[in-house]
Amino acid sequence: MSTKKPVVVELYDEIVFPDPSEAFLARVQNHPAVHLPRLPAGLTLPPPIPVEDASKRRKGDTKDNPLSQWFLNFSEADELLQLAAARQQ
């Protein structure tokens, strides 16, 4: 039995249609190949986040990101300690 955790890599292609017309949106949603997940009763998504001016942010800047609550805090020092401990095993 191995104690190593497998690495999971997921890739997908995404096409975004900002502000689609009502007719186009209805056609896409009603297509038999489209599977839209239904949210459980009582669960609502937060409102869309306004797009910020990209020139004001540095690439990769996540400070004050409203989605940060959904991601784990990352510590480079903790990661280095875990790597060092794994190498000693």
TrEMBL record:
Region feature Disordered, mapped onto this chain: 39-64
GO molecular function terms listed in the Swiss-Prot or TrEMBL record: translation initiation factor activity
Keyword Nucleotide-binding part of the UniProt annotation: no
InterPro entries reported for this sequence: YEATS (IPR005033)
Keyword Protein biosynthesis on entry: yes
Keywords (A to Z) from UniProt: Initiation factor, Protein biosynthesis
A GO biological-process term: regulation of DNA-templated transcription
Protein name: Transcription initiation factor TFIID subunit 14b
Taxonomic source organism: Trifolium medium
